[in-house]
Design brief:
Blueprint (H helix, E strand, L loop, with lengths): L2 E3 L5 H9 L9 E7 L4 H15 L3 E7 L5 H8 L8 E5 L3 H6 L9 H7 L2 H6 L1 E2 L2 E2 L2 E6 L1 E6 L12 H14 L13 H4 L26 H12 L13 H9 L5 E5 L3 H6 L4 E4 L14 E9 L6 H10 L3 H11 L8 E3 L3 H8 L3 E2 L6 H16 L4 H13 L2
Parallel strand pairs: 2-3, 2-4, 11-13
Antiparallel strand pairs: 1-12, 4-11, 5-6, 7-11, 8-9, 8-10
Helix pairs in contact: 1-5, 2-13, 15-16
Length: 396
């Protein structure tokens, strides 16, 4: 195992941060916490048990609400008095949460900013105010199965990947040289990022221009469509469960996915490595990916804001971040050292990643780009699809 230092830790800052998690003494209360399954759920359960040991008046109740559903559900359940006290959501939904009045500001932003990775702090700041507590940093990279592809064969460009996969498919008709979810804008955005093109502009805050139908995006998505020659499978059969299952089952040599799959792939006995995403045509560096911050937000509707903030902050402690990495494989949001042979590949990819924008228009991006990606993969006209996508996002 290779030890990777994310950053140097400031001892005084850590002492101050951990000391802030004070015991509360008044009354018995239950905090309801929403999180996803397949790792994050067990993290909340175990973290809750540990927290209750030092805060015996507080019980943590885990409820399954998937990450993508939490924002819509808090808007419905919160005002009705049956929502979560603390819930997980991605940073790209921050604007919706803030403008909707659904979340409280971080109660101790200076301490959190000292302890958390700078990229996570930036991702959770809106108009100079920080919201939530980051619990993981996320991006994705190229996983490769060492039993099916030699490390020195792992492609550095998408052109090389396509050619290698085509040859592999001929000699291994029961396997795939490469798989990815071709209908998720979270992943297909990489093909629009050539020559510095970025969704909603360089700073991700251009409300008038999504750039999703720019000439650079069209060029990149035409190449994406041409990848069908290396993976001749309809978009409907390349959803997340299918492509994850193919790699986990040893039936795919390469796969674009994230750290969250390290644990299940390891448990499945796959000997794999992680490398940066191949470069696009005309570029020499890895293609840009989305980077995201997963945060625990305190609901504006909670009856226990002090305890909810304290528990959410507790989840950022070094001990809990190490536990979360062990259970989920996700990159910690704080400055700690972790042992992993895979983190290096993700840290390298993070150098070329850019934060998912959090402006309101981002809420329209997902469905529009998901549909466009599926249609393009299945042969639709690239420009027409991206023009329609842009119209759905910015209304023109």
């Amino acid at each position: 195992m290779k030890k990777v230092a994310l950053m140097a830790v400031c001892v005084a800052a850590i002492f101050s941060f951990v000391a802030c998690s004070k015991k509360t003494n008044d009354g018995k209360i239950t905090l309801t916490v929403w999180e996803s399954t397949n790792g994050p759920d067990e993290f909340i359960r175990q973290a809750g048990e540990i927290y209750t040991q030092s805060h015996p008046n507080v019980t943590i109740k885990y409820v399954n609400v998937e990450l993508g559903d939490a924002v819509g559900q808090i808007a419905l359940d919160g005002p009705a008095g049956k929502g979560a006290d603390v819930f997980a959501a991605p940073n790209d939904r921050l604007s919706s949460l803030v403008t909707g009045g659904h979340v409280l500001a971080t109660s101790n932003p200076d301490e959190v900013k000292t302890h958390a990775l700078a990229s996570c702090v930036k991702a959770l700041t809106s108009n100079g105010v920080m919201y939530g507590y980051p619990v993981s940093a996320e991006t994705y990279a190229l996983f490769y199965n060492k039993a099916l592809i030699k490390e020195n064969e792992v492609p550095k460009t998408w052109l090389d990947l396509a050619e290698w996969a085509k040859k592999f498919n001929v000699t291994h008709p029961d396997k795939y040289g490469f798989v990815m979810n071709v209908g998720e804008g979270y992943y297909t955005i990489i093909f629009t990022t050539g020559e510095g093109n970025r969704l909603f502009g360089e700073n991700g805050d251009d409300h008038e221009h999504s750039n999703i139908n720019s000439e650079k995006s069209i060029k990149g998505m035409k190449f994406f469509q041409a990848l069908r020659g290396a993976l001749n499978v309809p978009a409907s059969d390349l959803d997340t469960a299918s492509v994850d299952g193919a790699f986990q089952g040893g039936r795919a040599a390469m796969h674009i996915t994230g750290l969250w799959n390290v644990v299940p792939f390891t448990n499945a006995g796959i000997d794999f490595g992680v490398a940066p995403i191949p470069a696009l045509m005309g570029d020499s560096k890895p293609a840009a990916s989305f980077s995201g911050t997963r945060a625990m937000f305190v609901s504006a509707y909670t009856d226990h804001p002090t305890e909810a903030n304290d528990f959410a902050r507790f989840l950022m402690s070094d001990e809990m971040q190490k536990l979360r990495f062990k259970l989920t494989g996700a990159l910690p949001s704080v400055n700690i050292e972790i042992d992993s042979p895979y983190v290096g590949g993700f840290l390298e990819q993070l150098k070329y990643a850019f934060p998912m924008p959090s402006i309101p228009e981002m809420g329209m991006y997902w469905e529009a780009m998901n549909n466009a990606s599926k249609n393009i993969w299945d042969g639709a006209d690239v420009k027409s699809e991206l023009d329609a996508c842009n119209a759905s996002i910015v209304g023109k």
